[in-house]
Specification:
By secondary structure, the chain is an all-alpha fold. It is built from four helices and no strands.
Amino acid sequence: MSSNKLENNITTKVNNITTKVNNITNKASNITNKVNNKMSNSIYYNLIILATIIAIFSLVPIIYEIIQQKITSNLPYISLVLIAITFLIYMYISITKGYYLHLFFYTFGLLCIFIIIFFKRMYDSKNIIIHKSVENIYKYNVNTTKNTSTTKDTK
């Protein structure tokens, strides 16, 4: 009888140990899965952030070119307004979720859009005057050319 008790005792202890090892293995695989998911999510997250930062900082060369060339007639207001609305939505989400680094970048992007709109308003009004002057000069040249051609014909 004592050997049966001993066998039962050893069998239950082995079963308990096996159960504990299985539990530890399951926990380890769960942790590994979570780490892998977080790593893949963090890679995508970092790629999205990198793309957003590049898109926002791509506005700086546009501002530089606007200042250099003083021509903004090819930038429609509706596009600039829609980009500004997009940045405002991003800023709202950043504030509500507590993403303060994102908030900094979106604020920078919104500032760039406002600078572009400012220069567009300033340069478009100057370009209208220039375009009207060019049109008047062209009309004058066309009229004088017609007059000289008619005077040549009459001679």
